[in-house]
Amino acid sequence: MQAVGLQTHIWANNTRSIVLLAMFPVLLVLVLYGLQLVLMGFGIIPGSGGTLADDMALAAGMLGWTVPAAGVIAALWFAIAYFGNQAMIDAMTGARKVERRENPELYNLLENLAISRGMRTPTLRIIETDQLNAYASGLHEGRYSVTVTRGLINTLNRDEVEAVLAHELTHVINKDVRTMVIASIFAGILSVLAELVFRGLFFSRGGRGNNKNAGPLILIGLAIAAIGFALAFVIRMMLSRTREFVADAGAVELTKNPDSMISALRKIEGRSTLKAPDEVQGMFLDNQPEKAGVMGLFATHPPISKRIEALVKFGGGRDSGPWSQQTYAPSTSVPRAG
Q1: 8 Å CB contact between 221 and 34
Q2: DSSP string, 130-172
Q3: pLDDT tens, 100-119?
């Protein structure tokens, strides 16, 4: 599995994190300017009373105080998200922390994998759902978590659960987790900003002015804001789907058992749906759209079939085909948490 280039992937993730943070102020200004033009068009912000160019120049001048104000709000958001990102993710997914005494075997599997890499054991969390999925979260050592669903614990055998835990631990080792959390925070502030403004427009009573340049201002403002959001989407797409191939490879490296990773993916295939914001779903072990087609081009994860092909080709694993109760012999599952 050396063909995937683990060190190159880690370096690329660090670079993406820097790019995400560097691009945030630029996109914030771009989106803010577009939204100011829209607000001016609706008469909520007073215009210059002159030409369209005068109104656009006035909106640009307003950035002198709106950008610092937005910067303060963004800084507060980053601070809250930095210290409370795990609580936010738990609230959105329904995850809860699990102590060793509740499920010692599951905890020991994760602990042994972490010890093998000389790192602190991430916190273990469980989501009470029959769906089969998992994800890692956190920003730095001592704050990492690995979350699995009840369905995954009850359906997969011990070796398969270990492979999934190794997959998620690889995301931690490769800094995928940090990059995804930063992307979530980054996209979140833009979404909150846009939602606040458009809610204000929705509940306003048609504005308080009658700007003769209203139509062009609104159109130009929406176009500029759309460009900002499009660029934010492009940056999110920079979070390459190769991270899942690399994490699968890392799981094989940790467990020395490609067959278990393959059989785990087969059992998860088509049974992984979890409701959560798009940014959080990007962290899941699997997140395939219900209907592929064109939308598959924008999927955050490669198809499981492609991941299995890579494991067979580069990891020497064996694929028994789509899973059913008859395909795989019954085996002992990890004991349930209390």
Answers
A1: yes
A2: SS--EEEE-SSTTS-EEEEEHHHHHHSBHHHHHHHHHHHHHHH
A3: 999 999 999 999 999 999 99
Percent helix, strand and coil across the chain, each to the nearest 5: 65, 5, 30
Q: What is the DSSP string of 208-239?
A: S---TTHHHHHHHHHHHHHHHHHHHHHHHHTS
Q: Taking the C-alpha atoms of 209, 213, 216 and 220 in order, what is their torsion angle to the nearest 10 degrees? A: -70
Beta bridge partners of 147: 125, 135
CA-CA-CA-CA dihedral for 240, 243, 245, 249, to nearest 10: 160
Helix (H, G, I), strand (E, B) or coil at 14: helix
Closest C-alpha to 197, from 38, 29, 81, 28: 38
What does the pLDDT read at residue 19?
A: 72
| Positions marked active-site | 168
**Three-class secondary structure of residue 256 per DSSP:** coil
Residues 233, 91: contact at Cβ < 8 Å? no
**Amino acid of residue 302:** P
pTM of the model: 0.76
At 123, give phi and psi (nearest 5°).
-65, 140
State both tokens at 230: 């499009």
3-state secondary structure at position 335: coil
Q: What is the mean pLDDT of the chain?
A: 81
- Residue at 81: amino acid letter: A
pLDDT in tens, 266-298: 999 989 999 887 778 888 999 876 555 544 555
Structure tokens that stand for 101 in this block: 């005494």
pLDDT at position 1, please?
Answer: 43
Is the CB of residue 240 less than 8 Å from the CB of residue 299?
no
CA dihedral 100, 103, 105, 109 (to 10 degrees): -60
Residues 328, 268: Cα–Cα separation, whole Å: 13
User: Tens digits of per-residue pLDDT, 152-189?
Assistant: 999 999 999 999 999 999 999 888 888 777 777 666 66
**pLDDT reading at 53 higher than 50:** yes
Q: Residue 7: pLDDT above 70?
A: no
Distance CA(321)–CA(211), nearest Å, equals 64
Contact 31, 228 (CB under 8 A): yes
